[in-house]
Amino acid sequence: MQAFLCFLLVLCSLSVTSFIEATKTLNGFSIDLIHRDSPLSPYYNLSLTSSERLKNAALRSISRSNRLGHLMNKNKLPKKKSITIPDEDLGEYLMKFYIGTPSVERFAIADTGSDLIWVQCSPCRKCTPQHAPLFDPTKSSTFRTVSCDSQPCTLLPSNTHVCATSGECVYEYHYGDKSFTAGTLGVDLINFGGGDKGSTTFHKLTFGCGIYNNDTVAGNVVQNNTGTVGLGAGPLSLISQLGDEIGHKFSYCFVPLDSNSTSKLIFGGEGMEKALKGVVSTPLIFKSSDPSFYFLHLEGISVGNKQVKTVKNQTDGNIFIDSGTTVTRLKQSFYNEFLTLVKEVMGVKEAPESPENTFCFRKDAKKGFPDVTFHFLGATVRLNQQNLFEYYDTENLFCLLVRPTAEEEYAILGSQTLVGFRVEYDLIGAKISFAPTDCTKY
Asked: Which UniProt keywords apply (predicted)?
């Protein structure tokens, strides 16, 4: 707290400047989503096998729950193998963009569970290590700070911002794992094309210029965290700032991890109902207690011809969809029912060497897998084997890509469950749509 007060005093000496105006309207565009373990990622580790990468992604999902404030009580978990959380950033998908004039390249987490765009800035009072130089707003001729009485500042939750004596808006965001980012709210040119020569430049995008940051995983400092692009429902997320320009719609299409193609993030454009076949939709539910998250209502899960159902007569949203979590997580009681059904229908039992809180088994892959279907309110989504089961060849094990979470926490629909689907968020229509798609063709 003392360090943050000192930080505020530093900010109070800064000058006040004004906004720049938007000059461009878009009908729709797409950009690459780079999985953190792909060769295009600055975090790529050539020495890891595909199985090791997926294992690490599963472990990051546990840390992700911590960040979102929905961490399981570790003291209640049975002791099996000890596991180590990778000392890496929590996000699974990165987006490359260019910021400032002249523009500088940045990779940041694309996060549907966050409502703020922020990058680490210079001069930094406390920053986590990153692969690129810090963004220096004084070297950008188009950067402006945001005043306290401006609309963007007032859109921040009251407990996340203060007004410096100079009149600038100072933000402070805390996450569930005690990590945080703090700095001045600013605006600059942000380009999702190709730098200064790119074709998709926005004006008046508000973002946090973080000069006091602390990002941790299991008590360790995170490496290479350059920032976050919030895609959540909050008023300062990228989606909300683009608003009418993209019809309040965006979608993504995740390719398999071993694909040579790149996943896509699509803003605006033609609706899926007109462009794709087999589209199903479910209501998008917003909760005032967690305004950044996109909630759905899961009614049950089928394995083969048998089904387990969630609590009856409730449709208020019992699972949220999150691009930053790889593995789907279900409440412990419902997970137990689902797991019992998997064992029964597939005729398998848990392998003794299964990692903590992970169900693994041995099976003849030639015999195939039963259909697994997620039943959302108004939408039936049939999944493929790759969405729910991963084969670890070194151990000759299949592992279920679903984990339990504490009863009092929300369930999470993870990104691996949605590989091979185009998923569209329609904020005006208040619905999320799913369509099985060859995402490598985008």
From this structure: Aspartyl protease, Glycoprotein, Hydrolase, Protease, Signal
